[in-house]
Amino acid sequence: MQMRQFRYLVGIADELSFTRAARALNVSQPALSQTIKDLEDDLGVRLFDRSARIVRLTEAGVIAVDHARRALAVTHALRETIDAYRGLKRGRLRLGVTQTFNALYLPAIVSQFIRCHDAVDIEVLELANAEIFDRLASGELSLGVGIGPVAPPLAAYKLYTDSLAFVCARSHAFAALPTIKPRALADQRLALLSHGYTTRASIDAFLQHHGVSPKRVLEFNTFSAIMSAVSDGACVSIVPADASSVSPKLDLYFGRIQPAPPQRTVCLLKGPAGLTTPAAQKFEDIVRAYFRTGAPR
Predict the structure, then answer these.
(1) What is each CA distance from 274 to 14, 74, 157, 212, 281, in whole angstroms?
(2) What are the two backbone dihedrals, phi and then psi, of residue 93, each rounded to the nearest 5 degrees?
(3) Sorting pLDDT into bands at 50, 70 and 90, what band is 288?
(4) With contact defined as beta carbons under 8 Å apart, do 191 and 229 qualify?
(5) High-pLDDT (> 90) share of the chain, %
(6) Mean pLDDT of 99-113
(7) Beta strand 143-147 with 91-97: parallel, antiparallel or unpaired?
(8) Phi, psi of 242 (to 5 degrees)
(9) Where is the signal peptide (predicted)?
(10) What is the rounded distance in angstroms from the CA atom of residue 130 to the CA atom of residue 121?
(11) Domains of the chain, earliest start first
(12) Which residues contact 178 (CB under 8 A, 6 or more apart)?
C-alpha cells in the first residue's frame, strides 16, 4: 500500500464523489478509480458502494478511511519533525477552535506566533466541540480549543473557565433587571446555536433542569448572527459571557442568570501522543503562556 492510495481514499470519502475528488486532488478520474480498485484488490474488500447515484463508504471502507487518516497524520508529523531536525523553517498548523475563542483570543495569539515563525502556514477552522474532538483523534488537526473534559486518546490543558449569560437589546424590558430567572425565559423567543454545538447542549440541559421549555426558538450557527438578531429586539438569548466582546458596537445588555448555569472549562486540546509537530508544540507554548500571564478578558 502507498500513501498516494491513502490520500485518494480520504479524498473520495470527504467528497463522496469520484469526480469532485479527482478535481480536488488534481488527478484524472480514470487514474483515481484505478488506484482505488488496486487498493480494493489488495485488501480483498470493496471500499465504496458505487451502485447508487451517491458514492457511499462500505463498512470496510469506513474502517479503511479511519486508518488512512491516521497514517497520513503520522506521515505529516514525521515530515514536520524531520524538517525541524534539518533546520528547515517551514511547517503547517491546522487548528480547530470554538467561535468565541476564535473571535476573542486567537488573533492575538496567531500574531504572536507568526512574528517568530512567519514561514509556517496556519489554517483555522471554527468547529463544534464534538467535531474538534473527532478531528483531533483522527489526526486531522494539529491542536484544538474547546470545552472539556476529554477522554483518551485526547489530552486537555485548562485555559480558563467560561460562564453563560443572558443577553437582550437595551430597549428590552429585561434590560432593567439585575438578574434573570430561568422561568422568565419560557415565553420569550430565544435565539440559540443550532443543535450539535456543546453550548446549545449546555443551555438545553440548564433550562430543562429548571423546568423551562422554550416555545419559540430561532436557530443560528454563529454568535454574530445571534447578536444581530437580539439587537433588533425581536428575541433574547443565552450565550457565553465572553461573547459580550464579539459585537461591541451593538446596543446589547448582558445580565446574570440566577441561579447561575454551571461554568465550563475551556481547554487547549491535543490529539494522540506522537502526532505533535514542532510547529504545534511552539504554538501550544505560546497559548499556554498567553493565558498563564493573564489574557485580556
Answers:
(1) 25, 8, 17, 46, 12
(2) -120, 135
(3) very high
(4) yes
(5) 61
(6) 90
(7) parallel
(8) -65, -15
(9) none
(10) 25
(11) 3-69 (1.10.10.10), 89-158+265-292 (3.40.190.10), 164-262 (3.40.190.290)
(12) 255, 256
